[in-house]
Fold this protein.
Amino acid sequence: MSEFTIPQPTRPWDRKRSEVVRSGVSLAIVGLLSFAIVLFTGFSGVDGWALCILLLCVAVLIYRGRKLSKKERGNATVQLVITAAAILAFAPWLSIFGSVLVKGIVGLKVNFVTSDMRTTVPDDDLSMGGALHAILGSLLMVLMATIITLPLGILSGVYLTEIKGRFTFLVRFVIQSMSGVPSIVAGLFVFTTYVSATHGPTALGGSLALGILMLPTVARTAEEVLKLVPDDLRSASLALGARQWRTTLMVVLPTVRSGLITAGILGVARVIGETAPLLLTAGSSTAFWFNPVKGPIASLPIYVFGMLQIGTEYAVNRAWTGALVLMLAVFALFFTARKLGGKDKR
Amino acid sequence: MNIVAPVKREMHVVHSRGDKVFRGIVTAGALTSLVILGLIGSFLFARGAQVFSQYGLKFITGTNWSSSLDEGIPSEFGMGPMLVGTIIVSAIALLFAVPMSIAGALYIEFYATGRLRKILSGLLDLAAAIPSLIFGLWGIQVFTNFGQNWAEFLANRLGWFPLFNTISDNYGRSPFVAGCVLASMVVPITTSVAREVYSRTPRELIDTCYALGGSKWGAIKTVVLPFGKSGVVGGAMLGLGRALGETVAVYLVLNLNFRYTFRILESEGGNVASLIATRFGESSSEELTALVAAGFVLFLLTLTVNMIASAIVTRTTRK
């Protein structure tokens, strides 16, 4: 039996391999040359080096451009401009990943995740104290926020895909606009309604604020995954005599279970680094007590923020380590979501 | 012989009681987001109403923000410089972010090949997930060193240009640096929207362009860019919404000062969200009301921007 392969659309704009190699080699030469120039002249630093490379590329372009046709010259110019701007766009992220890793790893010792700041001041040696209380606080608040938000988000998704009632447009629009509510406004809202009316900052206050920020992400992802459920499944279930509620609860939702978990995970990833609302609603502390409705509670973002405000060398080190843990957590969540998200589609 | 195309049968559904309950619960759940949004608006307005009625428009245009605990000296709250500062910083951010995002999206879609393309699109997704706190941390600890030099360069060479005018030589923690940090935060959002729209460009049109002897740039200029225009505008508006409401990243980087300033390279600026974060901890109840009112103004501003943005994005990506 012969195998048929469905022809995939080609990408005629892709450059040929030889072209890629050639431009790579010439870029390397230009890079080295600029490095030499940086060493011996007034340009300095990474940015000076990048500028030097760009200027040399422009020079090469002008030199080569004399021989090219107008069309080819235009193409090459645009390619240089777009590549340079794209590098400028991607560079900050690489710089962020790099600096968080390099500066954060200094303080990443076992005690960072096993002890808290009860008996340690930020200026103590990095082998003392840690962020256990902040990590636990973050986990508690995020967990509570998820418990509040996930059902609401899934209900919104079900409404948009299964019921499609008369508010469909409105709900979708509100969810879209809600994702733009500034985090500090969410914090301010929870503060005016809940925190100031009770005993001041608590874990519950923090998780309510986080929930507001999480809901749009969860709802939108839930809608997206529910859309993937084939209509045949619904029709089959209805044809077997199941009511809509049974169809939804026993056929539609179980089909996309891992997708719905993904929605929750993406929501958590969205809010785990939120700082501003927690400043207003959860406060900070030096140790962890499990009491969601009483007393301020520390969280990882606030830990980083507070250490940075103190500003001494060790405190800043602690801030970077906290940021590293935070970023690793976000990435872990993100990759889990991707893995799970791929499952339903198969 | 007449052939009549079959008409779709009209179906009437009578929901059972169980279904009615189910639909009621789901509808209620879906409407909570509407309720929450309404509550946010109305509560903030109610708490801040006193300030609005006391100061009127002066709350928006006033230049002085002073809270006094002394009965004799009246407090005064005007958020003008903060509002203007917010707009300046966001404008700087967008000015950098939009061209970079267009280039980034075009690069991923049309210039990068094979593995590089995969790596970059993965990087883009990850960057969108970085918490703003980390942008702020990076901004003040790493980027400021670069930004300061660039600002100094601009001030020395282009100081004659009114915006680049400076009277002191302190360039760190300026609106320029904060705007750059915000730009790097906005780029992931705008780039992913732009990329999404660019990838929907009809293949026939691009192929036609090539078949007519067009170059790659020709195809991009005549087909891809016009096709993606409104999507990019929507993405930029989404980014603007994020930039306007951003708190910690700006708070950490910008040196907050209560004065109208248009000297963007100098170490002072304003920002509504940072104002709330700064003053919140030590405010009297009177000032707290004013802060809530400022929060309401910020809420309205970002909500408007976001509604326009989401309207544009939904319209362009649904096709």
Chain A has a mean pLDDT of 87. The two ends of chain A are 25 Å apart (CA to CA). Chain A is about 75% helix and 0% strand. The longest helix of chain A spans residues 70-104.
